[in-house]
Amino acid sequence: MVSSEIHPAGVYDVIGLGFGPANLAVAGALLEQPRETCPISVNKSLFIERYHEFKWHPGMLLPGTRMQISFLKDLATLRSPQSPITFLAYLHSQNRLVDFINRGCIAPTRKEYSDYLAYVARYVQGQGIKVAYGENVIAIEEGGQGTVQIHSRVLTTGETRIRRAKNLIISPGGSPWVPRCIQIILPHPRIIHSSEYLSSVEPMLATMKASTQSLKIAVVGAGQSAVEVLLDLNSRLTSMGKGTGQAHNLHLVIRGGSLKPSDGGPFANQVYNPGYVDVMYDMPSDSRRRVIADYKATNYGTVNPHTLDSLYEVMYDQQVDRDIARCRENALPVTGARITIITYSDLSSSEINTHPLQTSTETDTDTVSVLFQNTLTQDFSKMTYDAIVCATGYERNSWLSLLKTSSLGKHFGLCAGSDKTCLSVDRDFGVAANEKNGDFVVTTNGTNGILKAAANGRNGYSRTSNMGINAEGIHAPCTSMDTKASDTLYISRRYRLLPLSTAGHEFIPKIYLQGCAEETHGLSETLLSVMGTRAGEMVEDLCSNY
């Protein structure tokens, strides 16, 4: 079934894909624009969200877990401290401001921050922002008359809805990623991703509680989520008690030799300052890649030092229990779980093991065999687990798939068959006017949109290397030697994709990206740190170029 649900005027001023924190910040910034001068109407703004209600990382709202940033890096404070959607405004509305101050910590719990975001979602909707919940965007196309056409499917009914907008903001968030050798045996109730941990862990453990044998569970990953899951699983398995007198085994599988603490110091954190986005964007691409690599330990594959201390205390306490029990001839009971860190290990292959008496529809007694390769010696070893939790991060390429399969991609130089795509800054924006001889290229200034001629590579102009995004969501070098011009998309400082000049046709709709441009805007792009400031810049650009 197909229906067309559009504004009575026929077209929305702006549609946002997703209604997570990024577009929530945009909604707040839109509401705070002067109504008498803002060309974007709140009544003609819509956000499409696949969840049936507002949710933020529901699978990782573990008890006691804290945010890794200050409460001041909320959806609005750095943009406008007097905004009604700041974290302080939320605390005041809950009559909890003084109690939060007395707490003496600038980092809220994850549970409280989730409630803050839900509060803001209710507020902006109450102010007129429309949200279509429970719909999954399946395609975007040219809509004619300078519009973009958005196709979405209602998850409860399967109905397809088609809407048109003059502007589009794509904020896809992250899609759970698991190693390829695990992907081939999915779905399975005993293999879960950390993004769905809270909703899946109890059903997963329930399939194993009837077993009298000790359990062996692997957590794959070396970041904050992996350690948080590990500690939570340790608590759950300990409360389950021992199996046949033996402790349950928890393995944390990591590629390196040890867990690494995140660098949260004030100097390292300057890379997440809003002003540092300008610094990153203006750098040559080679320098930008080097800075991203230098500061990688502030975000990727690292763990908050306090969380590491907690894990070490748990593992040390388990060791004390074992030593005392051994010296006293098992006078003390063996703890219900035992944590081991499996270092220098990379997943090579996996398979589901079924038992001889098990039918094809039974999964309660399945086990998973995993072949590991030692990253130092290259030797192989095999382990069998009752369950696996993949805390292996996210990929952020869904926006590329939407553009590649649409008629819009060609306007930005996107080749549908390309398997590698680069984002580049506006100063490198260019297209050969004559592909046969490459007489000249045209570049644009992303701030004011003025076109100017630039000499080609023979006269000093060269396409700089950039960072590509591969299928696993991992940034990889992308150079002019192995990348066609059609593989490079250009993005302005204010997050707007820049359309290429095409003979006889000007692409009018503006398309913005959020959370996808780390290789041009820096490490803060996928995080909460600059979300409020970015939303303000994007809305200002949207209104000034309307």
TrEMBL record:
Catalytic reaction list: L-ornithine + NADPH + O2 = N(5)-hydroxy-L-ornithine + NADP(+) + H2O; L-ornithine + NADH + O2 = N(5)-hydroxy-L-ornithine + NAD(+) + H2O
Pathway in which this enzyme or protein is active: Siderophore biosynthesis
Enzyme Commission number(s): 1.14.13.196
GO annotation terms (biological process): intracellular iron ion homeostasis
Keywords attached to this entry: FAD, Flavoprotein, NADP, Oxidoreductase
CC cofactor: FAD
Gene3D superfamilies per record: FAD/NAD(P)-binding domain (3.50.50.60)
Keyword NADP: yes
GO molecular function terms noted in the UniProt entry: oxidoreductase activity
Top-level class of the enzyme under EC nomenclature: oxidoreductase
Source species, domain of life: Eukaryota
Family statement drawn from the similarity comment of this UniProt entry: Belongs to the lysine N(6)-hydroxylase/L-ornithine N(5)-oxygenase family.
Name this polypeptide is given: L-ornithine N(5)-monooxygenase [NAD(P)H]
Organism: Suillus placidus
